[in-house]
Amino acid sequence: MMASWLSLVRPEPTPSTAKGPLSPRDLVTPMPSRRVRVSGMDINTIDSGERDGTPVVFLHGLSAWMDFWRLQLAPVAEKRRVLALDLPGYGSSDAPDAPYTPSWFADIVVAWLDSLGVEQVDIVAHSMGGQVALNLAARFPDRVRRLVLSAPAGFEQFVPAAASVMKAYWTRDRAQQSKEPAIRTNFNTAVFARNDSHVELLVEQRVRIGLHPLFYNTSRAVSRSVAGMLDEPVFEQLSQVHAPTLVVFGGRDTLIPNRVFTRSTTRQVADDGIAQLPNAHLCWLDTAGHTAHHDDPTGFNRAMMRFLETP
Known about the structure:
By secondary structure, the protein is α/β, with parallel strands linked by helices. It is 40% helix and 14% strand. It has a single domain (24-308), classed as Alpha/Beta hydrolase fold, catalytic domain (Rossmann fold), CATH 3.40.50. The longest helix is centred in the last third of the chain and has 17 residues, at 215-231. It is globular.
């Protein structure tokens, strides 16, 4: 009886710290990658190669890297040229002393596309990447054909006092000093609503790169990225984004809106943003959380591919 009961107890995962530091340059990628020189930086890049149709660019969110798109890249690459990057400051890309504002990221993405000889793209973007994509689409409309935004930052608005508190909270030391229990809890309860072996791999890698000296620069990028999103709100620019846009939110998103500062719901934030966009509609995935493309990949991929394949 005792043996039977013990067999039902799930063992605690081996601490990721036991495997030692991991260089950000050794992070797992979902497809083969290479480093491309852009504006004096090496940008880790996935390029699946030429295919018919508009290339599709994938932009990850805050504190993430390209492997967060693992469940999307290969399916899209069967039909389109897939381009993905670790944004500067994240993943295996260089992390210089830079502003890390949405407009700065957008300029780098345009320069990166120029280096690849790509004129116009569809963009699929998550969270912070969504705000970058909206900034890019507003300022460089000829470069973007269609947008797919998974839980985009930029729809939610913050009063100056709230922005000041968040910027003071998200210091470089906060990311630098995060320990495995807190990282694991954040990934398993806030970032993702569906936990699996891929989430466990992401947790392990995040913990291990946090032990590496190069993570000091990533921590700086995280802090400045948060400040940049707050200092460059995009809500008032949404009317300038004329590219057809699919906005995807999950019914279990616990990060948007910010429960401390915003007396609203995820659905209301989504509706407010879509109302400002000239040509947008919502895909609502009931069981998904903030990372909807991971939590409900079947629903997300179906909606994404149907939208991208529209002439």
